[in-house]
Amino acid sequence: MACFTALANAVQLDVSPGAEALYFKALPLLDEIDDLNNELFKLQHQLPDKEKIPEGTTAALKDKIRSLLAEATPLLRRSSDEENPAAQYRLAWLAIGFAPREQAVGQVCSLLKSSLKKGFAPAGLQMISYCFDDVKTVEFRTLIDALPEPTSPYSKYYPQPVLMPRCDRAHASKEEKVIGSLNEQAIRADLYMSLSTQMSRQNLKQEQMRYLQKSAEYGCTRAIEQLKLKAGIQVLPRAALAKAEFQV
């Protein structure tokens, strides 16, 4: 317990003005990259099965993405080097999307873990999808449990991109964006939902239920639906809980 408390107290929250400025200079470029990626996904989904997007269309989009990457990546690297957790997350996000896995995996997981240690929740969510050895450890769960409650001081860095959000079933539709842009509460809901699924695969039933409950508290519709099927457990998302407390 003492170790757990010490880790929670050790979460670093300060970001230097220089690192912050570099990140926000890169941000419009990063958002445009995500938009272009969504456009590529959308074009592919609109085609009949096994039919490919015309080469000229994909080439133009990919050339634009490469140009934006060349401008955004150095800014992110400098911000990341100054320990900005949002920059570390977005740098890892770009490596996942555009670098070969065998080249990127070591760098990606190092960046995400550093970001998560500073209390940046999106990094934990991305680790579940990418850093398979890390997420099996007690250390990883301890870092998740050390995230500031109910939210962190990083509100200015949201929304953040997430690939195929898990909590809102509407995103499963082909017409929806593959890359979602989520606020911190939605990311925390997805994070706990994903971790609950991981605990189920490891047959850690108590931990599975604990994270499922937390996901529901953050408003995850899938978690709420699952809890309703398990022994009649009653759960309210945080917004409803806050409203009920106010009325009392």
Keywords:
66% helix, 2 strands, mainly alpha, 248 residues, disordered N terminus
Write a structural description.
It is a single chain. The chain has eleven helices and two strands. The protein is mostly helical. It folds into two domains: 112 residues; 91 residues, no CATH class. The chain is globular, with a radius of gyration of 19 Å. The two termini are 34 Å apart. The N terminus is likely disordered.
Helical proportion?
A: 55-70%
- Proportion of residues in extended strands: under 5%
Give the terminus-to-terminus CA distance. 34 Å
Structurally, how many domains make up the residues?
2
In the sheet with the most strands, the strands line up as 1-2
* Number of strand elements: 2
What's this, in brief?
With 248 residues, the protein is mainly alpha-helical.
What's the arrangement of secondary structure elements?
Layout (H helix, E strand, L loop, with lengths): L1 H9 L6 H30 L8 H27 L3 H14 L2 H17 L3 H10 L7 H8 L14 E4 L15 E4 L1 H18 L3 H13 L3 H8 L9 H10 L1
Antiparallel strand pairs: 1-2
Helix pairs in contact: 2-3, 3-4, 4-5, 4-6, 5-6, 6-8, 8-9, 9-10
